[in-house]
Predict the structure.
Amino acid sequence: MIDFLIKSTISLCILLAMYHLFLEKERMFRFNRYFLLLSLLFSMVVPFISFEVQGEIPAVYKNVIPLETITNKELPIQAEMTNVKTDLQVNYWVSVLEVAYIVITLLLSFRFIYNIYTITHKAKESKIILHQNTRMVLLSENNLPYTFWNTIYISQKDFENREIEQELFTHEIAHVKQKHTIDVIFIEVLKIIFWFNPVLSFYKKAIQLNHEFLADENVLSQHSNVIVYQNLLLNKTSIVLPNLLTSNLNFLATKKRLIMMTKITSKSKAVMIKSVIIIVFTGLIVTLCVDFFPSKLSKSQELQDKRRDYIYSGTRITIDDQIENNKISEIYENLDRATKRKYLGAYSTPSISKQMPSESQFEKWKNNSQYIIWLNNKRIRNSGLNDLKRNEIAYFSDQKVNLEFEKTSKEANTYYLYTQEFFKKYRLEKFPQKYAKKEFKTTWIKGQPTEEQTRITREKFQKNLETAKVEMLNNSPKYIAQTFMKKANKDQKIIGSEIQKKKK
């Protein structure tokens, strides 16, 4: 979630800055409209896009211990090296923030729905006519014309007294035909969901101001007298604010609208600006979506990533990094690869150990109406168990042992059985078990060893392990017997040679 907010906010800010610097002051209104809408969509989608590109980039991952070298007996040594404390208290602030977000979102949703109801309810209480093929609602109150969806709301008194100029009708009809309400509703929905992001308010202002530019352009294409229309706008300036969901003549700064009526943008300048925009979008994709990783990534590292994905798939990862003052609480799949390697590279779960089913379990599995049975990762009929002996089963589980470390779904009343031959052939004793709990919690405390310290500690441990093996071998009865026999043979040869010398 944090990664999404950071990337989307960066994208929103950069694209909005580009709009104000290059587009807002240019007469490219239709392009500007699509640019603003595309910027919003792009910023919401870009955090979910990821491309992997190989490159000669040095890969340095701290506290990573290859999973294939870790066994159950080595786990205490691993914990000593990483200095990790696995007991983490529940953070109630997260729950408080979630509740606060839901409450505020519901309130804003209610306000949004109420505003729509307020507008549409006026149409039910007022007279409706069709003017210039456009639906119009004649209101009893005095106000300037405004538009919502396919309807223009206008003062009945002004309309019947013919006090509304044709230019104003043309202006509002442009809002209807160009469907500007869709843009406004879209940004309002985003503001409800991401109410904590103030950048969206600036997008709404830019979108609605551009709507006014588009409507003004439509007026001037049909009524060519610019000065008359400008004077009309100045005379119609109203203090009364319209509903935030409607398009209205008096929205935002009238001064900007007056300036844009006489603005001219050359084709060459428009092409140049559009080229810059394309470059910016490309740059954002490369910066936010492309994940560079070294081309010489070892197979062991790739295997470690696949094993880790298999182990923690679907598990919530809760990390309290007191060293870098970083807290994470996300489903494993939502973490980026660097975070997975950094915080979970040194963790493993016990390898699979043999377990034979009980006699009652083995008999129950033969019931094809209650159980689904897989043997050596192949679906079989339950009656097929009659051809097997219970002691031929080396291991069984309700989860499939996926030899390619791919994600597999867990099905109810489904059991996976593995024979002694299969267990030995594919070395399942080296295969890691999936993390059993729904949440993995860890705390990184100060005093964390550096990568060099971890390497030295690992080498020291391996050396001590080899020394222990040698000592164990030297102390074994077989080794002692062999040494005694060698010494006895040597002594016998020496005694024999001395006897021969005496005979001579």
Q: What stands out?
A: The first helix runs from residue 2 to 23. Confidence is low (pLDDT under 50) at residues 55-90, 294-299.
